[in-house]
From TrEMBL, chains A, B:
Protein location: Cytoplasm
Annotated family: Belongs to the PhoU family.
PhoU domain segment(s): 17-103, 122-204
Entry-linked Pfam families: PhoU
Primary role: Plays a role in the regulation of phosphate uptake.
Gene: phoU
Quaternary context: Homodimer.
Species per Swiss-Prot/TrEMBL record: Nocardia cyriacigeorgica
Any GO BP annotation: negative regulation of phosphate metabolic process
InterPro entries assigned: PhoU, PhoU-like_sf, PhoU_dom
Protein name (database record): Phosphate-specific transport system accessory protein PhoU
Length: 220, 220
């Protein structure tokens, strides 16, 4: 039983990691579609979200089967419960990339974001992709130090998000209300993407150390 | 074992229901604070979120104990797994009420929302509160028809949300960019609150019927 459990658990962690990586690469392409008003790229992200959705169902069934057939206890059980929680986070990360792609599609052939704000989204996209990669590594290696680094990346994301609001609230904002609405929503999508990656890090830290780090969610 | 399991599971469902009710009443007060620019009420919602957070940890520990000590199988196991998933939804519902209250606080002593838009938020607030109540009933009664009704309430919320965007995108919007940013974020908070309530309904339908209804999330 133990061998089967270990194999299945490793498979589950790998699948979760793969999904985090996919969410990151979806956010990468979504960001490119946004910056270049590239409809084809946006459509690609939208179509490929189905793949993440299918993997979600697969992971949910696997966690259930693990509980039902292996009846894990103690630390093993904690791992499966954490997987059930984290699958929601990777799912949301994928959905948020999808939302960014949908903004691109909605505004095409126009650019959703004024050119002078592009730099912010390029950087938020870069951080998001890197956090997707970090989450993937953390899921695969369960390295708590690596997991804690997600907080620093999240801080950088929050800084950019705050700057973005400063720009929006400035009397010199000259791109009108429609662009402000898009920029507001987009900013929130990137920020939430980062929050979910941080949440994965917290869960892994809890698994390894037994202590759940405080929720430093910038929103709370 | 069976009796203990049933008791513990009923206790868990009741606690989840209570939390959904709390999230609904938090959204009620948050909406009032928003419409009346009432700082005291906003602070109350912000402080009371701590109570929801504590209940979250309590529920998480209980689900874990249930799995560890009772090793439920089949339908019983599905219930516990669903509880683990739904606790995240009620947590987010509470956090979204918190966000609304924080917008009130940030703009105090000004009103965050232009008077002519108040009616929209009053109505979105009303629907949110009612969905919190519905989610509570659904968790307590596990009535799949009641759960399906959450979709209709969500449709009403989505309609309002779309109208709100039409207002924002109108050239006649005369309240400036800052108000548009607040209205955009607030609209999203109410819409997400509704989505989480719907998600609880879907999980309950799955538990009772064995079929997970399609994700009709308006965003996807």
């Amino acid at each position: 039983m133990r061998v089967i459990y270990n194999e299945q658990m490793a498979g589950l962690a790998q699948l979760l990691g793969e999904m985090a990586g996919l969410a990151g690469s979806a956010m990468d392409r979504a960001t490119q579609s946004l910056l270049q008003a590239d409809l084809t790229l946006a459509e690609q992200v939208i179509t490929e979200y189905d793949r993440i959705s299918e993997m979600i169902s697969d992971v949910e069934e696997r966690t259930f089967a693990l509980l039902a057939l292996q009846a894990p206890v103690a630390g093993d059980l904690r791992q499966v419960v954490a997987a059930i929680q984290m699958v929601n986070d990777v799912n949301r990360m994928g959905a948020l990339a999808l939302h960014v792609a949908k903004v691109t599609r909605r505004r095409h052939p126009n650019h959703a974001v004024p050119e002078s704000v592009n730099g912010y989204f390029a950087e938020m996209g870069r951080i998001a992709v890197s956090m997707g990669e970090s989450a993937k590594e953390v899921l695969e290696t369960r390295d708590p130090e690596r997991a804690a680094q997600l907080n620093q990346q999240d801080d950088a994301m929050d800084d950019l998000h705050r700057h973005l609001f400063t720009l929006l609230m400035d009397r010199d904002w000259k791109y009108g209300v429609a662009a402000a609405v898009d920029v507001t929503l987009l900013g929130r999508y990137y920020e939430r993407f980062a929050d979910h990656a941080v949440e994965i890090g917290r869960r892994v830290i809890f698994l390894v150390t037994g202590v759940l780090p405080p929720d430093e969610d910038s929103e709370a």
